[in-house]
Amino acid sequence: MSSSQHERTATTAAIILAGGAAARMGGEDKTRLPIAGATALERVLRVAPADRRVVVGPGGTDGDALAERHGARFVLEDPPRSGPLAALERGVADLEDAPAETTVLVLGGDMPLLRRETLAALAATSRAEQTVAALTAEDGHVQFLCAAWPLERLRRALADVEHPGGGWADLSLRRLYAQLDDDELVARRAAGAEGADIDTPDALEQVRRAAGPRIALAQIEVSEDSGTTAGTVRRAVAEAADAGARLVLLPEATLTPFGTDLRAAAETRHEDFAHLIQELATTHDLVVVAGSFTPADGERVHNTVIVRGPVRVRSSSRDSSAESVDRDADALSAEYRKIHLFDAYGVRESDTVAPGDQLLMVDLDGARLGLATCYDVRFPEQFTALARRGAHAVLLPMAWGDGPTKSEQLRLLLRARALDSTTVVLAADQAPPPEHRGRAPRGIGQSAVVGPLGQIRQELAREPGMLLVDLDLAEIEAAREALPVLTHAVELPEP
Description:
It is built from 15 helices and 26 strands.
């Protein structure tokens, strides 16, 4: 689509104010502070559900990269750093050619915990009711820099602002909101700490404690042809990295689908597959989690989830051409063996797969992530055990079997396990091949993000796709305070 066509069809725009330096932050540009692997500004840009994104503030050293990744245009108010109302007026001026029915999200570039679904809901409310829809923080105050406005109402409000000094400099946004009648402002309560901004060192510390990593769930179709699957995996990991993910979760049995010779695959292809996963983790600088199979006792295999983080390689010789290298001893490398085997619905996984007996946790950007695989989801004890060991989320790769009621069961189980353990459940299933008719489980889709109180936040259908979630550790903590099931459990007496 050409830029002119894009502008004519835009219905939502985002104006992100990113020009303020906080005096209480030592004059540092708070929008460029690192938060769980990305700057505050990038975290806002990547969740803004907008057709156009205008950043009012200096481009800095990362401006070109942010513009390319998020389609953002950087502009400056005149003079620069002359206050939020001046910046907003400059942003609205950049929307001169936008359709009159455009909805404008007015956002602060120092609010890195905002969620896409919240911003989409604010925009939808504003558009439907032709009102201003704003977020209210945990303490109840309205966040002027997290609101959706009808464009024409925003233009009128700016035109009616009084200018005591004759210009926009140093005027507060309160002057804008003071013009609204009571029935023109609709408030939406923030979930967890998403309404937090960075104004003080204490606020920065609180935001960093709440911010978790961005995780991608890749719902892919797994082919019996290993070359085809390798290409699919490469594309999925690259897509996740381009979206800013710090970890990408691929489905169970990504090495080879069920119904094939698992032992042969484990013996002849696992090492190459693990090497590919390690290569992709290092190339794209993120953690890759994928389902494989490894040899076990007799002729069986372990249903193994491999976890690989990027390896930093440095020459151990002054000669840069030397082949000898030192590898980072702290590089993440772990494996989880599926504990509960799918001996149900006429399938006997235990005929070919040996069970594991160890839980696994990995740490990433302040978040603790537990591992489980597919049929494990039917056993609440595993999820509560992981939560009691500190898991904020459980990664759940799957190759779910199709059949009557299986879709409803999966949705119910994902919600129940999240609620049992007050953790976020992140499930990545295989996308089923359209031609598959056999009994071997090949996935049904329905990869999902489920919140700590059992809310389905995002969900895919049967086709290949990808979900992205920014973990909110403060939301998980709040859920556990409100519903302390992990501490209420007691040992039941014998009958």
